[in-house]
């Protein structure tokens, strides 16, 4: 077994496709798309308390974008959020991290996937989608890399998704427990530049300075149905 594969399977992650196939899928990726509820958090919310995110996950998205930037010839990967709800915290994160887009209020998420692919000149197999539940299946079916966030309370749903091969990797950690960070580190590992990415982030100059300048010049676009 590949060392990287063993690191993640030993902690409880599950690859539904052969690891060599997973690696090939990652190499094609030019865009990272995140669902919100159940992915960056455990999905618990109320009118007075919108669902939140963790800084460890946010850092993971930035490091992964930088890692991919290094492999894409210093070109930024397209990054954003698609959510079925309207969430002020999701908007705040997208703004702060200079994501390319936030689609809010999309219940049929494949519509947003197809729209962002058209807007950014992407093929569907160049999109990685991070998701957790039924509302996300239409989008997951279409995307080239599907990362499903663990939820231990849904064994029949997991069985359904396995049978239909609707995901490529199932995280060891649940939403709200830094599952996004886990998935980001996995992709960075497959990119083959995890340590390089961290070293250059620590230096905060040179290539990382160029990356962050490009990233911070990105204005987030907001879409509603």
Summarize the helices and strands and which ones pair or pack.
Elements: H1 3-10, E1 14-15, H2 19-28, E2 31-34, H3 55-71, E3 78-83, H4 88-96, E4 101-104, H5 110-120, E5 127-131, H6 137-142, E6 145-150, H7 155-163, E7 169-174, H8 179-191, H9 194-203, H10 207-216, E8 221-223
Parallel strand pairs: 2-3, 2-5, 3-4, 4-8, 5-6, 6-7
Antiparallel strand pairs: 1-7
Key terms:
eight-stranded mixed beta sheet, alpha/beta, 225 residues, 10 helices
Task: Describe what this molecule looks like in 3D.
Helix content is 46%, strand content 16%. The chain is of the alpha/beta class. The protein has an 8-stranded mixed β-sheet with strand order 1-7-6-5-2-3-4-8, sandwiched between helices. α3 links the parallel β2 and β3.
């Amino acid at each position: 077994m590949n060392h990287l594969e063993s690191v993640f399977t030993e902690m409880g992650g599950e690859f539904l496709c052969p690891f060599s196939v997973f690696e090939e899928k990652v190499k094609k990726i030019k865009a990272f798309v995140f669902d919100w509820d159940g992915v960056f958090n455990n999905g618990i919310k109320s009118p007075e308390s919108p669902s939140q995110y963790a800084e460890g996950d946010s850092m993971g998205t930035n490091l992964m974008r930088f890692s991919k930037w290094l492999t894409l010839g210093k070109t930024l990967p397209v990054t954003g959020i698609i959510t079925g709800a309207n969430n002020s915290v999701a908007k705040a994160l997208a703004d702060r991290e200079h994501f390319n887009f936030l689609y809010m209020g999309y219940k049929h998420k494949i519509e947003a996937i197809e729209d962002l692919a058209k807007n950014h000149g992407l093929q569907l197999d160049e999109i990685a989608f991070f998701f957790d539940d039924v509302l996300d299946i239409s989008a997951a079916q279409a995307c080239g890399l599907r990362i499903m966030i663990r939820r231990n309370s849904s064994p029949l749903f997991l069985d359904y998704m396995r049978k239909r091969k609707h995901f490529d990797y199932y995280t060891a950690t649940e939403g709200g427990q830094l599952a996004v960070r886990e998935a980001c580190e996995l992709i960075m590992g497959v990119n083959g530049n995890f340590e390089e990415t961290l070293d250059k982030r620590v230096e905060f100059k040179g290539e990382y300075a160029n990356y962050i300048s490009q990233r911070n010049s990105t204005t987030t676009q907001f879409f509603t149905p």
